[in-house]
Structures are given as C-alpha cells and as structure tokens.
Design brief:
Helix content: 25-40%
Shape: globular
Distance between the termini: 38 Å
Number of helices: 9
Number of strands: 9
Structural class: alpha/beta
Order of helices and strands: EHEEHEHEHEHHEEHHEH
Strand order of the largest sheet: 2-3-1-4-5-6
Bound molecules: guanosine-5'-triphosphate, magnesium ion
Length: 301
C-alpha cells in the first residue's frame, strides 16, 4: 500500500433492533450489495464488514445481527456478536425504524447504551415512511435519553440523508493508517458471501419458521477453465418434513431458489456460476459447535 498522509480509519458498528435496516445501510454506504436484506426479522446472523473510502478516511462498517431478547442458543450467539461489534468499534450507530420507535428491543439497547456511558449516533431510518412532524417528535424523545451525540434522519433504502452520516463518520474516526487495502470491500470470504446469497432466497421464498430452521454452507468451489465457477452448497434443515418443503413439489421450490440465487451470484462475482444445492437433514445443527464456527459465531455464550 502506498504511504499516505492525513489518513483516518475506524470501525463503525451498525446496531439496532431486528429489521431496523442495518444491512440496507451497510450496502448503501459501501455502494454495493454485500449484506443480505429481507423483510423478515433476524436475517443477519453474524458480523460482516463493509469497507468504504470517504476522501482520506477508510470506514470499516460492521453489520451486526439485530439485538433482541435471546432464547435459543443461536439467538444468544447472534446477540453476543452484535454487542461485541459495538464494543470493538470507534463509532456506534444505532438504527431505529422511525415507523416503530417504541419497540422493546430498541428500548433495551438504549438503556444498555446509557448504562455503559457510551454515546452513539442515532440514525432514524425509513424516513420515507413517516411524516415529518412525527419524525421530529420521535427524534426528540430518543435524544432526551442521553444516549446520543447526534441525530441523523435517513432512508437507507433511498439513500436520503446517508451522505451526511457518511461525512460525519469520516471526520469522526481517528487519524491513522488504513487497515485494509484500498480496493477491499469486505472481510468476508466469497464462499461465505455465496452461502448468504442462497440463505437470502430461503428467507424470501419460504415462510413461517422455516427460514429460521435453515443454515447454508458452501462445500466446494471449483474454478473452471472457461472462467466460470462451480459452487456446491449444503442447505441444512432440522427435520425431514422441512426438507420436503424446501424441495417442493417435484423439486420446484429448490429449483426456484437455485435459479434466483445463481442470478444474484453471477452479479456478485461478475462471472458465470453453476450452482448445485443439496438439502440435508441435520436435526441438531442448531446445537452443533461446528455449524457455529462456520457461521462465525461463538458457541459458548
Ligand atoms: N421503506 C424503507 N424500507 C427500508 C429502509 N431500510 C430498510 N428497509 C427495509 O426493511 C427491511 C429490513 O431491512 P434489513 O436491512 O434487512 O434490516 P436489518 O436491520 O439488517 O435486519 P436484521 O438483519 O434482521 O436485524 C427490508 O425489507 C428493507 O428493504 C428504508 O429506509 N425505507
Ligand atoms: Mg441485517
């Protein structure tokens, strides 16, 4: 890397209740879709870095799982990953869905921030859905908690207000050398991003509890001479009945999932992709330490 003067660099954690728009904001800030986004809660399961240059500043954005009251082991591991992301960061941005500001999850996070004495930036998100006077009232109520240094009103979806936040972050991270090469977008291996793309389709195309019973891992990645890549993935489900639903009538569901995921992968990798999906029943994947390691989560929390 070329030596530069006047550089700044820092970690910026994006935290918030499930569905607040953290992953959408990460993608908007990076200018490319890295993190998967769905209308369902608890889409993100582990930390993902998105890296972006703003003038002489390198922002290392940390997308985290939504913070909620954990029950299952997987939920506890996700919440621990979210708070760990915040603890390590130079700046913390709390995203709040402006249309649902009174969510208990948001309340809990604000209380914990106040207790820790750590001040965050408030990003009131989804302003495209809310009337201006309502927004101001919501911002005022949240600001009075004392948890925040400053308030930003944004739409992570349309990009409204995001430049402002980006500039503020660029000025707020500490002076110092960049931690990543200037063309690096993420710390996530392509194999992991590819598994996420398939998991996104599971969330979009399956209903009820099923997306939460699913885990996806890339098993093999084979470069072909013609420049294309063959990707083999395993979709873990917990019961035989779930496998039947994922496969669908005469394999129609898995075919649709594979077709959409393959399209997304070709866009992400910018080349031809051959995608092979296998559905395996592993009743206890949700209690299996090896699966947690594959997800980048800590099993023992
Ligand atoms: N209208 C509107 N929708 C948004 C905005 N930001 C995000 N969304 C939508 O909100 C839903 C959740 O977005 P995500 O980015 O997945 O939210 P998240 O906070 O990462 O969710 P988890 O990973 O489940 O914690 C998706 O349907 C997004 O398209 C916004 O500014 N405006
Ligand atoms: Mg997310």
């Amino acid at each position: 890397m070329r030596a530069r003067v006047g550089t700044r660099c820092g970690y910026v954690a994006l935290i918030g209740a499930p569905n607040a728009g953290k992953s959408t904001l990460l993608n908007q800030l990076v200018g490319q879709k890295l993190a998967i986004v769905t209308p369902k809660v608890q889409t993100t399961r582990s930390r993902l870095l998105g890296i972006v240059l703003v003038g002489e500043a390198q922002l290392v954005l940390v997308d985290t799982p939504g913070i909620f009251a954990p029950r299952r082991r997987l939920d506890r591991a996700m919440v621990a990953a979210a708070w760990a992301g915040a603890a390590d960061a130079d700046q913390v941005v709390l995203l709040v869905d402006a249309a649902r500001p009174a969510e208990p999850d948001t309340r809990r996070i604000v209380d914990r921030l106040v207790a820790s004495g750590r001040r965050a930036l408030l990003a009131l998100n989804k302003i495209d859905l809310v009337r201006r006077d309502t927004l101001l009232a919501v911002a005022d109520t949240l600001f009075r908690t004392g948890a925040f240094e400053q308030v930003f009103m944004i739409s992570a979806l349309t990009g409204d207000g995001v430049e402002d936040l980006k500039r503020h972050l660029a000025a707020a991270v500490p002076a110092g050398p960049w931690l990543f090469p200037e063309d690096q977008l993420s710390d996530a291996p392509e194999r992991w991003l590819a598994a996420e793309v398939t998991r996104e389709q599971m969330f979009l195309q399956l209903h009820d509890e099923l997306p939460y019973a699913v885990s996806v891992e890339t098993e093999a990645w084979t470069e072909r001479n013609d420049g294309s890549v063959r990707i083999d993935q395993v979709i873990y489900v917990r019961r035989a009945g779930q496998r039947a639903i994922v496969l669908g009538d005469k394999g129609s569901r898995i075919k649709a999932i594979g077709a959409r995921a393959r399209g997304e992968l070709q866009r992400l990798l910018e080349r031809r992709v051959h995608l092979f999906l296998f559905v395996k029943v592993r009743d206890n994947w949700i209690e299996d330490p090896e699966r947690y390691a594959a997800l980048g989560l800590d099993y023992n929390v």
